[in-house]
Amino acid sequence: MARAKPMLIGHRGAPRERPENTLPSFLRALELQADGIELDVHCTIDRVVVVHHDEIPRATPPSGRLAGKRIDALTFDELQGFSVRGLALISTLAEALAVIKGRAEVFIELKGEAIEREVIHVVRASRAPDRCAVHSFDHAQVARARALAPEIRGGILFDRPVADPVSAMRASDAFDVWPGREHVSETLVRDVHDAGGRVIAWTVNDAAQAVSLAAMGVDGLCTDFLPVLRAAL
Fold it and tell me: Which residues pair with 84 in a beta bridge?
């Protein structure tokens, strides 16, 4: 039986063509026929869930008192003074999900601390909550999110070799395992699949490596270069 091709997941959208983690980046990823979109979230001090990678805005700051402040120390209105590469504002998660409209799976990385309740509220209110999942390096945060919303899939990130991925999955009640690309092995893929989970490798930008990982049976490839990987596979 032929093995299904892995999902191609736009890492922060289409970051090589549009400012990462912005609405234009997500729209471009959809134009490139991404199967999924990965994005990062924080909460402002007034508990608005916003899409951005770093805790301090990786964006053109306004002059004066807001420069260098953390997102969780800024109100959403204050955050609107920042722009990513001078081309796009930092959006809310609700705006991002409204733009994506269920046309791709959305993988939401929890970057801010203790924001799972707010993120779940936004996901549940979206047009396609069944196409959303949350993941994090903080596996306890994923477990808390799953306890609050068992209908929303959870995933656990690793940036080092994974000795026992199945135990980590079970401890977090996770479905997806996200190892760095260099830590994927046939054994890891087999063990996760046997436990009913999926393996999503990150961040895969080399065509030959994508082909190798697909041959191992990974379920998803998170990439900055959607067209390159699509052509390779």
Answer: 88
Intra-chain end-to-end CA distance of the chain, in Å: 17
What CATH number did the domain enclosing 185 receive? 3.20.20.190
Q: Is residue 211 part of a domain?
A: yes
Of 154, 145, 156, 101, the closest CA to residue 121 belongs to 145
What is this structure's pTM?
Answer: 0.97
CA dihedral (202, 218, 152, 91) positive or negative: positive
Residues 46-67: pLDDT tens digits? 999 999 999 999 888 787 889 9
Q: Which two tokens stand for residue 25?
A: 């980046």
Distance CA 229, CA 233 (A): 6
| In a domain? residue 201 | yes
Backbone CA torsion sign across 157, 159, 162, 167? negative
Environment class of 188 (CB within 10 Å of its CB; exposed 0-12, middle 13-18, buried 19+): buried
Please state the domain count of the chain. 1
